[in-house]
Design brief:
Layout lengths: L2 H26 L3 H12 L4 H15 L5 H13 L1
Helix pairs in contact: 2-3, 2-4, 3-4
C-alpha cells in the first residue's frame, strides 16, 4: 500500500471508531429526566394526560431523533409499568 491508501485506511478506521464510541455513549448514558418521570408515574403523582405530556417532553431531550409517536409510546409504557 502506498501512503495515500494508508492515509485513507486510517481515516476510515478513525471514523468507524468515532461512530462506535458515540453509539456506546448513547447506549450507556443514563436518561435522568426520563427516570425521574417514571418514578412520578409510579407514585401516582401525575394523572395520565399530564404524565404523557411530561414524559414526552423529557424524551424529547433524551431521544431527539425519535418521532413523537415513538416518544409517547416509550414513555407511556414506562409510566404504565
Amino acid at each position: 500500500m502506498d501512503n495515500q491508501e494508508k492515509a485513507l485506511s486510517w481515516f476510515l478506521l478513525s471514523i468507524l471508531v468515532v461512530i462506535i464510541i458515540i453509539s456506546v455513549w448513547y447506549w450507556v448514558t443514563p436518561n435522568e429526566p426520563y427516570v425521574i418521570k417514571v418514578e412520578y408515574c409510579q407514585l401516582g403523582e401525575l394523572d395520565l394526560e399530564v404524565a404523557q405530556t411530561v414524559c414526552v417532553q423529557s424524551c424529547t431531550t433524551q431521544f431527539p431523533f425519535n418521532d413523537n409517536y415513538d416518544k409517547l409510546k416509550v414513555c407511556y409504557q414506562a409510566c404504565k409499568s
